[in-house]
Each structure stands twice: as structure tokens, then as C-alpha cells.
Amino acid sequence: MSERLQGMFVITFDIKDQGGDDRVIFAKLPAAGIVGYDIISASVTLHAGFAADTDHYMVVTLEDGGTDGTGTAVIASRGAASVAWAADGAYDLTMADGIPYPITAGDWLALDHDETGTVAYAGTLSVVVAPGQRGTA
Fold it and tell me: Which of 3, 6, 36, 103 is deepest in the core (most CB within 10 A)?
């Protein structure tokens, strides 16, 4: 097994319909004995789907909230007016700065919901994390 793949873990977060735009701080990466982490991937699975629609759609963005949760550096995102979501489909978010995304130990992860019109959704966000910022080799 590659050294890079050892010790990976998954953070899951239940997404609830916020009824509009919202930002939820949901996980703090442990700092004890770790220099940093790599975000390897992120995905969303919704319980109910909806069609691509220019009047009713959402964009979900995984953000690096920094040490106090207020940071908004984009890690990964998915959605737009032309993006449909099928029920029980797993959708990878597009990584903003490539894979992996390095993040400092002790930083918060946040999920930003940007909703246009009315969209009913609930599901699960999954984030794959590797400790140690081992790089891409």
C-alpha cells in the first residue's frame, strides 16, 4: 500500500434543506501531533433529486473555514443552473485547486448552500481526508 493512502478517514455530514442560502460549520480537523491534512475528495448523495432548472437550483461548496470557522477558501463544489441531481446518486464535488487540497491541522470545514429559487433537498456529504499533507507522490 502506498504511504500516501495509509490512515485516510471519512467525515460525513447530514445535509438538511436550509430553505435558502446558509453556511454550516461542521467539523474541526484535529491538531494534536499533526502538521496538516490533505482533502482527497468530497461527494454528495441526495435522498431526492431535482432536474436542472435555471430558476430553481443549488450550489454546494466545501470550504476551509480556517482556525475560527470564518474562512471561505473553496476546497470543492458542485451545482449550477444546468446541473441536475438524481435521487440516491453519488456526485463528486469538483476540487478547486486540484487533488489533494492541503489544509492546516486545527482548521474547520464548512459547507455553503447557495440556493436559487426553491429546491427541496436532504442528503449526505462525505469528505475523504489523509493526515500529514504527504503531497501527490
Answer: 103
